[in-house]
Amino acid sequence: MIEQNLENLRELYTKLPTNSEGIINEETIKISIVRNFFLMQGAEESWFDYEPFPDKSKEIKDRVDIAVKFNGIDSLEKTLYIEVKKGSKDLSSNFLTSKACKQLVRYIHSANLEWGILTDGNCYMLFNDSIKGSLEQKEVLRFYLFNPLNKSAKYRNESNLKYFDLKCLFRFQTTNYFKYLSEFKAYFKNENKTENSLKQYESTIYNFLDYTADKEKSFSLGYIDPNKFKQYLLDDISSKITNKSKKIPDTETTIKNKFAHISSFCDMLENKRDISVNPFRKFKSKGFKKEFISEDINIETDNEPKELLKESEIESILNSYNNTRESIRNKLIFLLFLYLGLDIQEIKLLKVNDIDLNKQAIHLANRTIPLHPSIFNLLKRYIEDRNSKKIKSEYLICRYYGNHYYHFEDSNFNKIISVKFNTLDIPDKRKKS
Questions:
Q1: Which domain of life is it from (predicted)?
Q2: Alpha-carbon distance 6 to 403, whole Å?
Q3: Which among 236, 202, 230, 209 is positioned nearest to 288, based on CA atoms?
Q4: Under DSSP, is residue 26 helix (H, G, I), strand (E, B) or coil?
Q5: DSSP symbols for 29-77
Q6: What angle is formed at CA 313 by the lines to CA 309 and CA 317, rounded to 5 degrees?
Q7: What is the CB-side half-sphere exposure of residue 116 using CA atoms within 13 A?
Q8: Kind and range of the H or E element at 23?
């Protein structure tokens, strides 16, 4: 039913009138798309208040586009502000600027509200003003009417939708779980942790909070405890086995890492005095495996020998790159992984100036790596190819997006390495997740 409603909304969006530049005006977006989106999310027509003053004293002369009052009750705790911006059928266009975000947050702050949404009819950005942090850190969740291209955003899009439901916002308050996740991201960055580490922590915490909200149907930080986390791990492993997922069951190391992620989340909650004590702390001792990982969790050990790539498999992967548009680049990435032992972060941040063609070596922060003639020749060809294309980026391996060059992301490397590896005729247990 929900998917059909979304499909109807998508179809309606594509038929909206535009001006000569392909722009859909705000009023059309507001009435035709946004209003219907929130009716689909549990609102009733009588709950909408169009263009009220965000500040009762009217010191702010602007009006917010929509105030949705849950159950029609005029209450600060049950009101959601929605600010609508123009849209475009070219979904790559972005009118949800930093200035627009500031405008929305200013409105909800002036009205002493907690929740607000900024949207262009396709992208819905949920903000919470109680989060102490920068404007960016006040954003809690996003939902896209048309699925985003970003793999991570696409994966979460369906899950995120349910937390825009007014019952999840105001009655069951399960959306609050993700307010605390946004606070954790701000806390994590203040600890000067790396962006890549944050993604790993965020993935674990998001999945567990989503699981908890689905199981408990209500919000309480008391639900974040070791027993429920253990049940989450059991259900997750069971789901992978039942669905014959290509993702291998969690190893002991993976479970320890996930445990550490949730424990860090609870450390923040304790530091902020949202909970009295981190319930995971007692498992940080040497008794972790005995007390937390019991016979209930059937994990794979990390001690199983890893089968190395065979020469024929290496040759097969290299040959497969001949049919790709960036064959030289793709072969180079594969060989940098395979023979030099560089990890994703090192290759991602590798700069052209780190390459010494005269000495046939790569200079990193803490070491110099000599290059085998075959890798050196391929690297030389790649740099010549870069120069002929007039690529202007300090990063050796880069991508072009939105008129700018950026370094590769983890997902880009995954497509080149893991996806190709998985096309080989090999057992599932050797395939990369």
A1: Bacteria
A2: 32
A3: 230
A4: helix
A5: IIIIIIHHHHHHTT--GGGEEES--SSTT--S----SEEEEGGG---GG
A6: 115
A7: 29
A8: strand 23-24
